[in-house]
Specification:
The chain has about 160 residues and is an alpha+beta fold. Helix content is about 40%, strand content about 15%. Helix 4 runs parallel beside helix 5.
């Protein structure tokens, strides 16, 4: 009975304990199992990932985009425009305890009430950028195999 009384007192003084508080802090207030796509501050500084955010919101307008309150004003404005154009809900979290280093999450797109269990949620892994342009290949060179004749034969 004393354990129940202590638990009741703790709830009254400190509030109801949160389930997985570190996970919720990392994913801007939601659980990992609900997350569809994440974007870090460093990735948000690159212009290359905004189309991926827009595509994801257009494909899933029922999902909610949560934006870390430490996001730059210009980036915040652009993210709000993307959410509005996709008719998707968004929130901006002003929780000062949220981490905001370059490797921390700036944007989380997640299902609001159900688990979706998306395996790959990082925007860089889900939407890899093809920075390297394919090198022009000569058909003759690509089919050529090395032989000893190449060492002794003058071209």
């Amino acid at each position: 009975m004393t354990d129940e009384l202590q638990e009741h007192l703790n709830k009254g003084m400190y509030g109801t304990p949160k389930l997985k508080p570190d996970e919720q802090r990392k994913y801007l207030g939601t659980f990992r199992e609900r997350v569809d796509l994440t974007v870090t501050f460093a990735q948000l500084n690159s212009e290359k990932y905004y189309p991926a955010i827009q595509q994801e919101l257009e494909e899933h307008p029922e999902y909610r985009m949560t934006i870390n309150g430490s996001v730059d004003q210009d980036q915040l404005s652009r993210l709000i425009q993307i959410a509005n154009s996709a008719n998707a809900a968004f929130t901006c979290s002003s929780d000062l305890t949220l981490p905001h280093a370059a490797s921390d999450l700036a944007v989380v797109i997640a299902a609001p009430h159900q688990a979706i269990h998306t395996e790959v949620v990082d925007v860089a892994l889900r939407y890899p950028l093809s920075n390297a342009s394919p090198a022009p290949t000569n058909e003759k060179d690509s089919k050529h195999h090395f032989s000893l004749k190449d060492l002794f034969h003058k071209k």
